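Posting this for the archive.
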Amino acid sequence: MREYIFLHTIALGLGILLDQIIGDPHRFPHPVRAIGRLISLLEKRLYRPSFLCSGERDNHAKKAARISGGLLWCIVVSVSGHVSLAILAGAYFLHPYLGVLTEGILTCYVLAARSLQRESMAVCKKLMDEDREGARAALSMIVGRDTAELSEEEIAKAAVETVAENTSDGVIAPLLYTALGTPVLGLMYKAVNTMDSMLGYHNERYEQFGYVAAKADDVWNYLPARLSALAMIAGSWLFGCVSTVYSGTDAYRIWRRDRCNHTSPNSAQTESVCAGALGLQLGGTHSYGGKRVEKPVIGDERRKTEPLDIKRANHLMFATEALTAAFVIGLLAAVRAALL
Protein backbone atom coordinates (compact mmCIF):
# COMPACT_ATOMS: atom_id res chain seq x y z
CA MET A 1 0.00 0.00 0.00
CA ARG A 2 2.80 2.41 0.89
CA GLU A 3 4.50 1.76 -2.45
CA TYR A 4 1.25 2.30 -4.36
CA ILE A 5 0.55 5.58 -2.53
CA PHE A 6 4.07 6.70 -3.47
CA LEU A 7 3.51 5.78 -7.14
CA HIS A 8 0.07 7.43 -7.10
CA THR A 9 1.57 10.63 -5.67
CA ILE A 10 4.27 10.69 -8.35
CA ALA A 11 1.66 10.09 -11.06
CA LEU A 12 -0.55 12.86 -9.68
CA GLY A 13 2.34 15.31 -9.77
CA LEU A 14 3.25 14.15 -13.28
CA GLY A 15 -0.32 14.68 -14.49
CA ILE A 16 -0.46 18.21 -13.06
CA LEU A 17 2.89 19.00 -14.71
CA LEU A 18 1.79 17.58 -18.07
CA ASP A 19 -1.40 19.63 -17.96
CA GLN A 20 0.63 22.78 -17.30
CA ILE A 21 2.94 22.03 -20.22
CA ILE A 22 0.65 20.72 -22.94
CA GLY A 23 -2.96 21.08 -21.75
CA ASP A 24 -5.47 19.06 -23.77
CA PRO A 25 -3.73 17.55 -26.82
CA HIS A 26 -6.47 18.10 -29.44
CA ARG A 27 -4.83 15.86 -32.04
CA PHE A 28 -4.87 12.80 -29.78
CA PRO A 29 -7.80 10.66 -28.61
CA HIS A 30 -9.37 12.21 -25.52
CA PRO A 31 -11.42 10.22 -22.98
CA VAL A 32 -13.75 13.14 -22.30
CA ARG A 33 -14.60 13.38 -25.99
CA ALA A 34 -15.27 9.63 -25.95
CA ILE A 35 -17.56 10.14 -22.97
CA GLY A 36 -19.40 12.85 -24.90
CA ARG A 37 -19.90 10.53 -27.87
CA LEU A 38 -21.21 7.80 -25.56
CA ILE A 39 -23.69 10.24 -24.02
CA SER A 40 -24.93 11.29 -27.48
CA LEU A 41 -25.26 7.66 -28.59
CA LEU A 42 -27.21 6.64 -25.50
CA GLU A 43 -29.42 9.71 -25.72
CA LYS A 44 -30.47 8.69 -29.24
CA ARG A 45 -31.31 5.21 -27.98
CA LEU A 46 -33.01 6.14 -24.70
CA TYR A 47 -34.85 9.39 -25.43
CA ARG A 48 -38.45 9.07 -26.61
CA PRO A 49 -40.75 11.73 -28.13
CA SER A 50 -43.42 10.45 -25.74
CA PHE A 51 -41.47 12.06 -22.88
CA LEU A 52 -43.02 15.37 -24.02
CA CYS A 53 -46.58 14.13 -23.52
CA SER A 54 -48.93 16.40 -21.57
CA GLY A 55 -52.35 16.15 -20.06
CA GLU A 56 -53.38 12.92 -18.30
CA ARG A 57 -50.14 11.19 -19.32
CA ASP A 58 -47.94 14.05 -18.12
CA ASN A 59 -46.88 12.45 -14.80
CA HIS A 60 -46.20 9.13 -16.47
CA ALA A 61 -44.09 10.82 -19.15
CA LYS A 62 -42.08 12.74 -16.54
CA LYS A 63 -41.39 9.58 -14.57
CA ALA A 64 -40.39 7.67 -17.69
CA ALA A 65 -38.07 10.49 -18.79
CA ARG A 66 -36.35 10.61 -15.39
CA ILE A 67 -35.91 6.83 -15.30
CA SER A 68 -34.49 6.81 -18.82
CA GLY A 69 -32.15 9.72 -18.04
CA GLY A 70 -31.10 8.01 -14.82
CA LEU A 71 -30.30 4.82 -16.73
CA LEU A 72 -28.15 6.81 -19.16
CA TRP A 73 -26.33 8.38 -16.20
CA CYS A 74 -25.61 5.01 -14.58
CA ILE A 75 -24.34 3.49 -17.82
CA VAL A 76 -22.00 6.39 -18.64
CA VAL A 77 -20.51 6.59 -15.13
CA SER A 78 -20.11 2.82 -14.97
CA VAL A 79 -18.46 2.54 -18.39
CA SER A 80 -16.13 5.48 -17.62
CA GLY A 81 -15.05 3.90 -14.36
CA HIS A 82 -14.61 0.34 -15.63
CA VAL A 83 -12.74 1.25 -18.82
CA SER A 84 -10.32 3.57 -17.01
CA LEU A 85 -9.83 0.96 -14.27
CA ALA A 86 -9.00 -1.71 -16.86
CA ILE A 87 -6.48 0.56 -18.58
CA LEU A 88 -4.82 1.61 -15.34
CA ALA A 89 -4.75 -1.87 -13.79
CA GLY A 90 -3.35 -3.34 -16.99
CA ALA A 91 -0.57 -0.77 -17.12
CA TYR A 92 0.45 -1.35 -13.49
CA PHE A 93 0.29 -5.12 -14.05
CA LEU A 94 2.80 -4.87 -16.90
CA HIS A 95 5.20 -2.60 -14.98
CA PRO A 96 4.96 -0.04 -12.17
CA TYR A 97 6.70 2.62 -14.27
CA LEU A 98 4.25 2.07 -17.11
CA GLY A 99 1.47 2.38 -14.55
CA VAL A 100 2.81 5.71 -13.30
CA LEU A 101 3.15 7.02 -16.86
CA THR A 102 -0.36 5.88 -17.79
CA GLU A 103 -1.85 7.32 -14.60
CA GLY A 104 -0.02 10.60 -15.19
CA ILE A 105 -1.38 10.85 -18.74
CA LEU A 106 -4.93 10.06 -17.62
CA THR A 107 -4.60 12.67 -14.85
CA CYS A 108 -3.51 15.21 -17.46
CA TYR A 109 -6.65 14.39 -19.46
CA VAL A 110 -8.81 14.88 -16.36
CA LEU A 111 -7.45 18.35 -15.57
CA ALA A 112 -8.25 21.43 -17.66
CA ALA A 113 -6.26 24.30 -16.14
CA ARG A 114 -4.01 25.05 -19.11
CA SER A 115 -6.82 24.66 -21.64
CA LEU A 116 -9.05 26.99 -19.62
CA GLN A 117 -6.25 29.54 -19.51
CA ARG A 118 -5.57 29.32 -23.25
CA GLU A 119 -9.21 29.57 -24.30
CA SER A 120 -10.00 32.46 -21.97
CA MET A 121 -6.82 34.33 -22.86
CA ALA A 122 -7.80 34.05 -26.53
CA VAL A 123 -10.77 36.26 -25.60
CA CYS A 124 -8.45 38.64 -23.73
CA LYS A 125 -6.10 38.93 -26.71
CA LYS A 126 -8.94 39.73 -29.11
CA LEU A 127 -10.22 42.43 -26.74
CA MET A 128 -6.73 43.91 -26.39
CA ASP A 129 -6.50 43.99 -30.19
CA GLU A 130 -9.90 45.74 -30.28
CA ASP A 131 -11.36 42.86 -32.28
CA ARG A 132 -14.80 42.70 -30.71
CA GLU A 133 -16.23 40.20 -33.19
CA GLY A 134 -13.23 37.94 -32.74
CA ALA A 135 -13.62 38.19 -28.97
CA ARG A 136 -17.29 37.25 -29.22
CA ALA A 137 -16.41 34.25 -31.38
CA ALA A 138 -13.69 33.13 -28.96
CA LEU A 139 -16.06 33.61 -26.01
CA SER A 140 -18.78 31.54 -27.67
CA MET A 141 -16.40 28.56 -27.48
CA ILE A 142 -16.36 28.57 -23.67
CA VAL A 143 -19.79 29.90 -22.58
CA GLY A 144 -23.38 28.84 -23.19
CA ARG A 145 -24.90 32.32 -23.27
CA ASP A 146 -25.61 34.38 -26.40
CA THR A 147 -22.58 36.50 -27.31
CA ALA A 148 -23.65 38.38 -30.45
CA GLU A 149 -24.81 41.54 -28.66
CA LEU A 150 -22.30 41.69 -25.80
CA SER A 151 -20.27 44.84 -25.23
CA GLU A 152 -16.53 44.70 -24.58
CA GLU A 153 -17.08 44.90 -20.83
CA GLU A 154 -19.74 42.18 -20.95
CA ILE A 155 -17.40 39.95 -22.96
CA ALA A 156 -14.65 40.41 -20.37
CA LYS A 157 -17.11 39.74 -17.53
CA ALA A 158 -18.33 36.54 -19.17
CA ALA A 159 -14.77 35.28 -19.58
CA VAL A 160 -13.92 36.11 -15.96
CA GLU A 161 -17.05 34.31 -14.76
CA THR A 162 -16.16 31.25 -16.84
CA VAL A 163 -12.63 31.08 -15.45
CA ALA A 164 -13.91 31.54 -11.90
CA GLU A 165 -16.63 28.89 -12.18
CA ASN A 166 -14.45 26.37 -14.01
CA THR A 167 -11.69 26.75 -11.44
CA SER A 168 -13.85 24.40 -9.42
CA ASP A 169 -15.52 22.29 -12.14
CA GLY A 170 -12.56 21.93 -14.47
CA VAL A 171 -9.56 22.03 -12.15
CA ILE A 172 -10.06 21.56 -8.41
CA ALA A 173 -12.92 19.03 -8.38
CA PRO A 174 -11.23 16.64 -10.84
CA LEU A 175 -7.93 17.12 -8.99
CA LEU A 176 -9.53 16.19 -5.66
CA TYR A 177 -11.37 13.18 -7.05
CA THR A 178 -8.23 11.98 -8.83
CA ALA A 179 -6.17 12.36 -5.66
CA LEU A 180 -8.82 10.43 -3.73
CA GLY A 181 -9.46 7.63 -6.22
CA THR A 182 -6.89 7.84 -9.05
CA PRO A 183 -7.97 8.88 -12.58
CA VAL A 184 -10.66 6.19 -12.33
CA LEU A 185 -12.67 8.37 -9.94
CA GLY A 186 -11.45 11.47 -11.77
CA LEU A 187 -12.88 10.25 -15.08
CA MET A 188 -16.11 9.22 -13.38
CA TYR A 189 -16.36 12.82 -12.17
CA LYS A 190 -15.68 14.09 -15.70
CA ALA A 191 -18.51 11.85 -16.92
CA VAL A 192 -20.85 13.38 -14.33
CA ASN A 193 -19.78 16.90 -15.26
CA THR A 194 -20.03 16.24 -19.02
CA MET A 195 -23.54 14.81 -18.68
CA ASP A 196 -24.62 17.93 -16.81
CA SER A 197 -23.20 20.17 -19.54
CA MET A 198 -24.94 18.14 -22.27
CA LEU A 199 -28.22 17.20 -20.59
CA GLY A 200 -28.72 19.43 -17.56
CA TYR A 201 -30.76 22.17 -19.23
CA HIS A 202 -34.01 23.71 -18.02
CA ASN A 203 -35.97 23.33 -21.23
CA GLU A 204 -38.76 21.17 -22.59
CA ARG A 205 -36.49 18.39 -23.85
CA TYR A 206 -34.14 18.06 -20.90
CA GLU A 207 -36.09 19.26 -17.85
CA GLN A 208 -36.96 15.67 -16.91
CA PHE A 209 -34.58 13.58 -19.04
CA GLY A 210 -31.59 15.52 -17.70
CA TYR A 211 -32.89 15.74 -14.12
CA VAL A 212 -30.59 13.05 -12.71
CA ALA A 213 -27.57 14.45 -14.59
CA ALA A 214 -28.15 17.95 -13.19
CA LYS A 215 -28.81 16.86 -9.61
CA ALA A 216 -25.89 14.42 -9.56
CA ASP A 217 -23.53 17.14 -10.74
CA ASP A 218 -24.72 19.37 -7.88
CA VAL A 219 -23.98 16.59 -5.39
CA TRP A 220 -20.56 15.69 -6.79
CA ASN A 221 -19.50 19.35 -6.87
CA TYR A 222 -20.90 20.39 -3.50
CA LEU A 223 -17.78 19.86 -1.38
CA PRO A 224 -15.16 20.59 -4.10
CA ALA A 225 -16.80 23.94 -4.88
CA ARG A 226 -16.49 25.05 -1.26
CA LEU A 227 -12.93 23.79 -0.91
CA SER A 228 -12.09 25.60 -4.16
CA ALA A 229 -13.51 28.83 -2.74
CA LEU A 230 -11.41 28.55 0.41
CA ALA A 231 -8.25 27.85 -1.60
CA MET A 232 -9.02 30.81 -3.89
CA ILE A 233 -9.47 33.07 -0.87
CA ALA A 234 -6.02 31.98 0.33
CA GLY A 235 -4.64 32.72 -3.13
CA SER A 236 -6.26 36.15 -3.06
CA TRP A 237 -4.52 36.90 0.23
CA LEU A 238 -1.17 35.88 -1.23
CA PHE A 239 -1.61 38.04 -4.33
CA GLY A 240 -2.90 40.88 -2.16
CA CYS A 241 0.49 40.95 -0.42
CA VAL A 242 2.22 41.96 -3.66
CA SER A 243 -0.50 43.78 -5.64
CA THR A 244 -3.27 46.19 -4.71
CA VAL A 245 -5.42 44.80 -7.54
CA TYR A 246 -6.27 41.77 -5.38
CA SER A 247 -7.98 41.88 -2.01
CA GLY A 248 -8.11 38.83 0.23
CA THR A 249 -10.33 40.70 2.67
CA ASP A 250 -12.96 41.49 0.04
CA ALA A 251 -12.65 38.00 -1.44
CA TYR A 252 -13.69 36.54 1.91
CA ARG A 253 -16.36 39.20 2.55
CA ILE A 254 -18.08 38.81 -0.81
CA TRP A 255 -17.86 35.02 -0.58
CA ARG A 256 -19.64 35.08 2.79
CA ARG A 257 -22.30 37.40 1.41
CA ASP A 258 -22.88 36.25 -2.21
CA ARG A 259 -21.81 32.59 -2.34
CA CYS A 260 -25.45 31.52 -2.78
CA ASN A 261 -26.36 34.14 -5.41
CA HIS A 262 -26.78 31.68 -8.27
CA THR A 263 -29.35 29.23 -9.59
CA SER A 264 -26.73 26.52 -9.01
CA PRO A 265 -25.83 25.67 -5.38
CA ASN A 266 -22.14 25.58 -6.34
CA SER A 267 -21.30 28.04 -9.13
CA ALA A 268 -21.31 31.20 -7.03
CA GLN A 269 -18.78 29.79 -4.56
CA THR A 270 -15.71 30.61 -6.66
CA GLU A 271 -17.40 33.36 -8.68
CA SER A 272 -18.05 35.33 -5.48
CA VAL A 273 -14.43 34.94 -4.36
CA CYS A 274 -13.13 36.12 -7.73
CA ALA A 275 -15.56 39.06 -7.81
CA GLY A 276 -14.51 40.16 -4.33
CA ALA A 277 -10.80 39.66 -4.95
CA LEU A 278 -10.86 41.81 -8.11
CA GLY A 279 -13.51 44.33 -7.03
CA LEU A 280 -15.90 43.38 -9.83
CA GLN A 281 -19.62 42.77 -10.10
CA LEU A 282 -20.42 39.52 -11.91
CA GLY A 283 -23.62 37.61 -12.61
CA GLY A 284 -26.84 39.38 -13.50
CA THR A 285 -29.25 38.84 -16.40
CA HIS A 286 -28.00 37.03 -19.51
CA SER A 287 -29.51 35.67 -22.72
CA TYR A 288 -29.48 31.95 -23.52
CA GLY A 289 -30.86 30.81 -26.87
CA GLY A 290 -32.64 34.12 -27.31
CA LYS A 291 -34.30 33.88 -23.90
CA ARG A 292 -33.35 36.27 -21.09
CA VAL A 293 -32.55 34.56 -17.81
CA GLU A 294 -32.66 36.57 -14.59
CA LYS A 295 -29.78 35.88 -12.19
CA PRO A 296 -28.64 37.67 -9.03
CA VAL A 297 -25.55 39.84 -9.17
CA ILE A 298 -22.36 38.81 -7.38
CA GLY A 299 -19.92 41.28 -5.83
CA ASP A 300 -19.62 45.06 -5.59
CA GLU A 301 -18.61 47.07 -8.63
CA ARG A 302 -15.58 48.97 -7.32
CA ARG A 303 -14.47 49.40 -10.93
CA LYS A 304 -15.42 48.36 -14.46
CA THR A 305 -14.33 44.98 -15.76
CA GLU A 306 -11.42 45.19 -18.22
CA PRO A 307 -9.68 42.62 -20.47
CA LEU A 308 -6.75 42.23 -18.08
CA ASP A 309 -9.18 40.92 -15.45
CA ILE A 310 -9.34 37.71 -17.50
CA LYS A 311 -5.60 37.30 -16.95
CA ARG A 312 -6.01 38.10 -13.25
CA ALA A 313 -8.78 35.51 -12.91
CA ASN A 314 -6.41 32.96 -14.44
CA HIS A 315 -3.76 33.91 -11.88
CA LEU A 316 -6.26 33.15 -9.15
CA MET A 317 -7.14 29.86 -10.83
CA PHE A 318 -3.50 28.75 -10.98
CA ALA A 319 -2.89 29.84 -7.39
CA THR A 320 -5.95 27.86 -6.29
CA GLU A 321 -4.68 24.79 -8.12
CA ALA A 322 -1.16 25.14 -6.69
CA LEU A 323 -2.43 25.43 -3.12
CA THR A 324 -4.81 22.50 -3.55
CA ALA A 325 -2.13 20.35 -5.17
CA ALA A 326 0.30 21.12 -2.36
CA PHE A 327 -2.37 20.18 0.19
CA VAL A 328 -3.35 16.84 -1.39
CA ILE A 329 0.24 15.79 -2.13
CA GLY A 330 1.17 16.64 1.45
CA LEU A 331 -1.82 14.67 2.69
CA LEU A 332 -0.87 11.64 0.59
CA ALA A 333 2.69 11.84 1.95
CA ALA A 334 1.34 11.98 5.50
CA VAL A 335 -0.88 8.94 4.92
CA ARG A 336 2.07 7.02 3.49
CA ALA A 337 4.23 7.94 6.47
CA ALA A 338 1.47 6.86 8.87
CA LEU A 339 1.50 3.38 7.32
CA LEU A 340 5.04 2.70 8.54
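The chain has one domain: 2-338. The beta strands are 282-283, 286-288, 291-293, 297-298.
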